[in-house]
């Protein structure tokens, strides 16, 4: 009986052994399949360096919009709230302002000390926290709508013939900064600055008043009245009274904007096109490099990108180009003198013109055909022409002895521009001899640097890392400790003390030269 049952028992034993091996085989095959899947997905040549942040920032793949008119149209159509907020930042009644200011100061001090203790890199390693005031719409959205509804009226000119709306575009830094600050965090790319919604969490306070639009598009008396209203609205704020405005950011990028009342806000951080030390535009002590920030004009021409620069390289047949108004005031009188000195010279093109649509096209064509672009002083030491040249790949030749430049704590302009004193530039034949002395290798190096650095001067939506909006906050971040120092000091120094120095007693911008050897 055992003999007849043996084959059956052996067969059963083999089946049992195979069944015991099946789970192990399935596990091995599953592990192999997972390994293959991992290799295909994560080590595929199409994605050799997977970036986890790319899954969280789809906005970074979108092409930024650099046209002010196009960006504003999209902003007003899609971003503006349907109605003003139920609560704005209207200041408390007079009797409660001092109490509100004291409570805010206590809350800010406590929050700041917590950050100092918690963050070993504070404030250098922390993003700047900005509180954006919710001002009444007559200071913000209504002015943007006014521009949007009238910008096609190109016949509207200033007294010197410049199109008003083109000037507003050139000075529209207030729009680009504000639009980025109030955008949802999911749509922003800048990480060095964040908007906070509680004043006690803020490092700085942003005043979103469009001073340039109001100056150019409102009637004179209407504009002055709005300026006075804005002044009262801001200076009644508890946060303003706490610091006397030292931690407030005020965009006044056109030298005429807010001119009638800005002396009452001289402690604030002004966003400027330059710092005129002659006193024609800013009174002594109102502006200086320690407190304020220079921002570039918005370029009036299109960016000549790397492809464009490569194409234009062989077509740059003009040695020196200038297009603009030759008759200017103050330091800009040098334009007429330079025009008389350079006109008619070989390989030089000097044209009289304005910034209208035809002028824009002519300037863009001329700059892209030229090696050097003349950038003399205008009514103020700076000129939008400098930034037009930079984004056109045309090497700027700067003749403006009092010029201050944007982001100079970060950028070295000697790598992209030539600086010539007014006295040298006016010597007969000197300037052209100097320009012709540059070798092809020198010129190519300057042009390559222009191609690398031009992105620092292109405003856009969304604002780009290392764009002008980003560099503005980096520069302000460098001032933050000093702002806090002067705010605290002003709160405790006896007002009658001789050590209290108002802005009026400050020296104009001055950089010490190295001592000469004895």
UniProtKB/TrEMBL annotation:
| All copies of domain Exostosin GT47, residue ranges | 126-434
InterPro entries, per database record: Exostosin (IPR004263), Exostosin_GT47 (IPR040911)
Q: Does the keyword Iron-sulfur apply?
A: no
The subcellular location is:
Golgi apparatus membrane
Organism equals Cucumis sativus (Cucumber)
* Recorded GO MF terms: glycosyltransferase activity
> Which topology term describes how it sits in the membrane?
Single-pass type II membrane protein
What is the similarity comment for this entry?
A: Belongs to the glycosyltransferase 47 family.
- Name a GO CC annotation attached to this entry: Golgi membrane
Keywords, A to Z, come to: Glycosyltransferase, Golgi apparatus, Signal-anchor, Transferase, Transmembrane
Query: What is the protein name given in its UniProt record?
Result: Exostosin GT47 domain-containing protein
């Amino acid at each position: 009986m055992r003999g007849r049952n043996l084959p059956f028992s052996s067969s059963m034993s083999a089946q049992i052994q195979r069944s015991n091996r099946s789970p192990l085989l399935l596990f091995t095959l599953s592990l192999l399949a997972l390994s293959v899947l991992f290799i295909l997905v994560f080590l595929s040549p199409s994605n050799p360096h997977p970036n986890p942040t790319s899954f969280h920032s789809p906005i970074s793949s979108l092409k930024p919009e650099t046209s002010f008119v196009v960006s504003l149209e999209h902003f007003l159509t899609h971003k503006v709230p349907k109605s003003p907020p139920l609560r704005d930042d209207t200041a408390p009644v007079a009797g409660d302002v001092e109490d509100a200011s004291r409570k805010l100061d206590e809350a800010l001090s406590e929050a700041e000390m917590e950050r100092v203790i918690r963050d070993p890199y504070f404030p250098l390693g922390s993003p700047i926290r900005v509180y954006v005031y919710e001002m009444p719409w007559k200071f913000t959205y209504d002015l943007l709508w006014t521009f949007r509804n009238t910008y096609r009226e190109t016949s509207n000119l200033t007294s010197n013939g410049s199109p008003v709306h083109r000037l507003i575009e050139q000075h529209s830094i207030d729009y680009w900064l504000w639009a980025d600050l109030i955008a949802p965090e999911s749509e922003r790319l800048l990480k060095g600055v964040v908007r906070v919604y509680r004043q006690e969490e803020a490092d700085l306070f942003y005043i979103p008043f469009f001073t340039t639009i109001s100056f150019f598009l409102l009637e004179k008396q209407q504009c002055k009245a709005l300026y006075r209203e804005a002044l009262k609205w801001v200076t009644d704020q508890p946060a303003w009274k706490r610091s006397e405005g030292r931690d407030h950011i005020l965009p006044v990028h056109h030298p005429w904007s807010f001119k009638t009342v800005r002396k009452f806000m001289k402690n604030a951080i002004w966003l400027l096109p330059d710092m005129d030390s002659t006193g024609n535009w800013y009174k002594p002590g109102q502006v200086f490099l320690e407190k304020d920030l220079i921002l570039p004009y918005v370029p009036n021409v299109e960016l000549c990108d790397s492809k464009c620069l490569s194409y234009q390289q062989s077509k740059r047949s003009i040695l020196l180009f200038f297009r603009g108004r030759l008759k200017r005031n103050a330091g800009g009188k040098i334009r007429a003198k330079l025009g008389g000195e350079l006109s008619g010279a070989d390989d030089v093109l000097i044209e009289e013109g304005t910034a209208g649509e035809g002028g824009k096209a002519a300037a863009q064509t001329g700059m892209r055909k030229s090696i050097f672009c003349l950038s003399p002083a205008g009514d103020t030491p700076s000129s939008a022409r400098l930034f037009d040249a930079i984004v056109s790949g045309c090497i700027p030749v700067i003749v403006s002895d009092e010029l201050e430049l944007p982001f100079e704590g970060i950028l070295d302009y000697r790598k992209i521009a030539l600086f010539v004193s007014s006295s040298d530039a006016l010597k007969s034949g000197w300037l052209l001899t100097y320009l012709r002395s540059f070798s092809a290798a020198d010129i190519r190096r300057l042009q390559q640097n222009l191609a690398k650095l031009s992105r620092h001067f292109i405003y856009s939506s969304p604002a780009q890392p290392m764009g002008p909006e980003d560099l503005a906050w980096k520069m302000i971040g460098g001032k933050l400790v000093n702002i806090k120092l002067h705010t605290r000091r002003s709160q405790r120094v006896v007002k009658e003390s001789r050590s209290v120095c108002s802005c009026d007693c400050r020296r104009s911008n001055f950089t010490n030269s190295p001592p000469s050897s004895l």
